[in-house]
Amino acid sequence: MSNSLKRSKKAALILMVPTATLLLAGCGSEEPVQTAVYQNAEECAAFYNPPAECTAEFAKAQELHAQVAPKYQSKTECETDFGAGNCETPATAAVSTDPNAPVQQQQASSGFFMPMMMGFLAGQMLNRGGAGQAGSQKSVPTQPLYKSRDDQSTYRTASNQPVARQSGVTSVMPSQMQPKAGNVVRRGGFGAQAQQRQSMTSGG
Amino acid sequence: MKKIAIEQRPGWREYAESVGFDFHTFDGEPYWDETGYYQFSMRQIEDDLEAPTEELHQMALSLIPDILADEQKLIALDVPPAYWDWLAESWRTSQPHLYGRLDLAYNGQGPAKLLELNYDTPTSLFETGFFQWVWLEDQQMRGRLPQGADQFNSLQDKLEQAFASIPLRQPCYFSSVDGNIEDKGTINYLMDIASQAGIDTRYLPLEQLGEINGQLVDSQNYPIQAMFKLYPWEFMLREDFGAHLLTSNTQWLEPAWKMLLSNKGILPLLWQKFQNHPNLLPAFFENADSKPLGQGWVRKPLYSREGANIELIDPQGQRLVVDGPYTDAPFIRQAFTPLPQFDQSFTLIGSWLVGDAAAGIGIREDATLITKDSSRFLPHIILD
């Protein structure tokens, strides 16, 4: 080693060296949590749950629906993902949520389309009597569920996490069940010019 | 400045691959070439390369206010008007920049001549900052090079310091065209250094960017607050997603104002402002009245990388053309200057800056006068 000034004092790599990648592995300490999935409040009650709780949980999920459902700019795009006749606009959703709500729901002009809610995850249903799961790390929020066009038998969260194939009790990873705002997303990013001018690198 | 043959390190290819340098050989031809190296004196490095690099950089920076204040210049540089205000804002708010590379013609004597600035997406970073550094240490350890030998190469140190000191929002996304291994290699190296500086880094292929209400988002729809992109600004402005640049709250590396300096139009502007500066070559914008290219002149598109679409006629009338995809932008003309020749190869010096400081050199060799992406990379030492 020299003590010169013209070159770097060290040139270490931490990510590019294969052995170092081990540092990134293994964060799998999360445990699955039991929860339940139902089509609606009636089905929930039919599984011998207290009807009042079923109704409350269902309402909670419906409230979240407008916020978290994936949004599309056209009905066609939405139906491509969720199937013909399975999409709605936020306003009609709001109307069906609360038939007593008057004309104020006319703000239908959002112009977005989103899939209809096909069921709900009853997050708190099985946690009666205080934390069903010992020291349950992260809770599973009650939320709406959807079914995609190409897989009508699976309940999925708004962010496309499969949850269950049938109604009833199921296990989920809490970290994968955290609802996020569902926005109108355009994908595509950049890169088109590089494709046109193919076989080149972007640097120089 | 001289070229000296040296024995290659046994097993260097395996070593290169183990550190992610997968493109050391391209299409069966060597890209990293350690059959020889270049030797400079300290005076050559400090007086002829380091100092002029920083001076040329300051000269280039001094042009930015001139350009932003003059629509004719923005038009000459082919910057789409929709982006003028946004671009000016990136300069007015002093958005920090990371790095750049000047390409210099230098033969060991006399002033180095500026051929162009690569100020937006310069590559050969890993070869310069890491691989040639390790090469020197290895050859010294093996006793093939004297212990007193040094290298003009503080690139990795300076990049790490820059990542640690630039006010950078986090996480910082690093992005390149999906599937391009050379670009991904550069990205991996930068992410590695940024991580060592304590930056929270994420990789995202450029094609996977999304947009929500004018904000660029990652594949999980999280807003992208800071992004290093290894992709030319001039492409981004002209793609469908370009409009979102105007509305997205995203800090960019390089910042938008850097696109003015990576444009070959900067060469005639430099010549206009600093005519007869010893490190500059005469350069002019091509226009409808320009005569056919004459002997001793070079024609370059405003936007071009890796030597593409360059046409050259040397003083003897010999003509050299490299095809490429950049036929759609205006051209500039630059006076020809010969690259020095060593062992039949033409040698070009890439002189790096991190922030505003000179940070080292990387050397490229080609069988022709136009340096291309296939041109070999050779290491160097400083020894008096």
Description:
The complex is a heterodimer of chains A (204) and B (384). Chain A is built from five helices and nine strands; from the N terminus they run βαααβαβββββββα. In chain A, strands 7-6-5-4-1-8 form a six-stranded antiparallel β-sheet. In chain A, strands 2-3 form a two-stranded antiparallel ribbon. Helix content of chain A is 22%, strand content 18%. Mean pLDDT of chain A is 75; it is low at 19-28, 93-109 and 128-137. By secondary structure, chain B is α+β, with helices and mostly antiparallel strands. Chain B has a domain at 2-152 and 259-263 and 340-382. Helix content of chain B is 29%, strand content 24%. Chain B has helices at residues 12-18, 42-68, 71-76, 84-92, 125-141, 155-165, 181-196, 233-238, 258-261, 266-273; strands at residues 2-5, 25-26, 29-30, 36-40, 99-105, 113-118, 172-175, 201-203, 210-212, 215-217, 226-229, 251-253, 283-285, 297-301, 311-313, 319-321, 331-335, 341-342, 345-354, 357-366, 376-378, 380-382. Chain B is globular and about 60 Å long. The mean pLDDT of chain B is 94. The chains are: A alpha+beta (204), B alpha+beta (384). Chains A and B meet through strand 9 and helix 5 of A and helix 5, helix 6, helix 7, strand 9 and helix 8 of B. Strand 9 (186-187) of chain A pairs antiparallel with strand 9 of chain B.
